[in-house]
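LAB NOTEBOOK - FOLDING QUEUE
OPERATOR: T.R.
BATCH SIZE: 2
PURPOSE: Compare the predicted structure-token outputs for two unrelated chains run back to back under identical settings.
PRIORITY: normal
REVIEWER: second-year student, initials M.K.

ITEM 1
FIELD SEQUENCE / FIELD STRUCTURE:
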Amino acid sequence: MDNPNQAENGRLTLEPVAWYRGDLPDKFGLPRQSGLVPQLQGHVEMAAGFRRPEMLRGLEGFSHVWLVWGFSRNHTWSPTVRPPRLGGNTRLGVFATRSPFRPNPLGLSLVELDHIEWEGPQGPTLWVKGADLMDGTPIYDIKPYVPYADARPDARSGFARGADRTLEVQVPPGELEKLPEEKRQALVGLLSQDPRPHYQNDPERIYGLTFDRWNVKFRVADGRVLVTAIEPLTNN
């Protein structure tokens, strides 16, 4: 089969093969890496022209997949960046970080493949967990995760030696029950990652996180995330 995106003079035109659909429409609140909130569910919807079951044949035998995707809302880049993990004050080379502000705005995420829905109006759909993607993110490729080749337990991790500490999340009685049961732990997991920019530390500031059809209001004080209200979005 001819490849219309074949590289010419080192340049390559990419076409989305799928789109990610999830509960987070904005960058604020996204997990900083995939897998940090394994309860977060979403699905990969194949793009027109790629809704062919034979393209996914055999993928059901794998528990995890790599998603190659695009930073669709970033249009600038810098040769050095300030990783949030280092407090936002230390500059490192862009290729030594996972900053979204890259010369080629491509991302790579490892997600759990929960199941494949083979029949549906959009063709086969991949239901996944633990993605760090916004709703509507273009997916450029899907590859199976192969532990014997992809896992390197003894690899060095530079400045990223482990996940950030998680915070205790406190929700007023009855607020969490406003959400469907299958989304509650995902929201708690997101909040426990401390969605605030690392340079902000005002314990009185109220933040708003858009999660599915709700606006989740919270503040952070004394190492705890204190939810103040969970309200339906006004445009729903």
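ITEM 2
FIELD SEQUENCE / FIELD STRUCTURE:
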Amino acid sequence: MSQDNKYIDFDEYIRQGEPGKREKAEYWQTAIGLQAVDGLKTSDYLKETARKHIEGDIDIDQARELIKSYYQSKSVREPDDDEKQEADKVSANITKILSSETFDFSSNGIISLHRRIFEGVFKHAGKVRDYNITKKEWVLEGDTVNYLNWEDLQRALDYDLKQEHKFSYKCISHDAMIAHIASFVSGIWQIHAFGEGNTRTTAVFTILYLRHIGFKVNNEMFANHSWYFRNALVRANYKNAVKGIDYSPVYLERFFRNLLLGEQWDLRNRYLHINPTQEWSVQPNLANTPTSTPASTPTSSGFTDNSNIIKLVKALGEEQRSLKELLALVGLKDRKNFLEYSLNPSIAAGLICMLYPNSPRHPRQKYLLTPRGLEFYNKLK
């Protein structure tokens, strides 16, 4: 396999590809990104298979069959093969689901969705759990959310879906809309109808439902922030009176504000911890470009000693560059890490800004140094 095949540039397809290729790339990017909620990573073979599907060389069912055959015929086993096999098969299944125009808004539809996502992976795919569960969560310092009793699962799903079906989005504010969507999705997740795969099922259900009722869903949000999405669901459903912690849906609402309103909340998991350090206690909106953030500690000169930011400022200089150009300038290929550790902190530090700040996904979006960034650049020179 060539080096290029290991690093399929989904963003390039999304930005410049033909409509059909762009949609396929978005679905694959989302499906692969969602595997992070369970700490899973896809194989290089999956990425190459995705490229063939995006290019139109094979259809999605052929892609799924290739992945199945790949693991059946593999003669040399690797330690992480089971995890990669799950991630690969589930990614292909989710891609097929997202490519479909059908949607069943019912409890049976959610159960069927779980079956379709985990077909060929879990023996219990599409089966509602018949036991109670707890899960230790890092953001809760090892505590667990109180999930619904298994005997009430079907009834709870039916009730939540019935209430949502009756709800009208007509003439409500953006704030009320976001709060309601977050509450509905949070409730579906808290039911935790299945033994495994609840967050991935909830995410796919959410994408399909929002599309169904007319929203244009930014799939990139689920692709790049699926782990934040899960932890935000945890915080929205956790309350501990002894520790003075109440339900905190605000983090999930900020995810949906970015998703549906194009806001720029800094979606990093450290803000969600029930006992964050002081530097991670306030989650910033990157559109406000504050003068400093936890990831860019100011030095005595008023700028930063963050090596990632310094490297990016030096590379950008007095030019205007696209995201792809910035990645090339700093010699990186991992877009997610570049955003988290270089670009977003630079924006939050007030050193870099967008050419089109009111339209973050503008097709001709570029980045440039702010006046403060130029001052820092000149000092670095």
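REVIEWER COMMENT (ITEM 2): Confidence is low (pLDDT under 50) at residues 1-6, 290-301.
FOLLOW-UP: none requested
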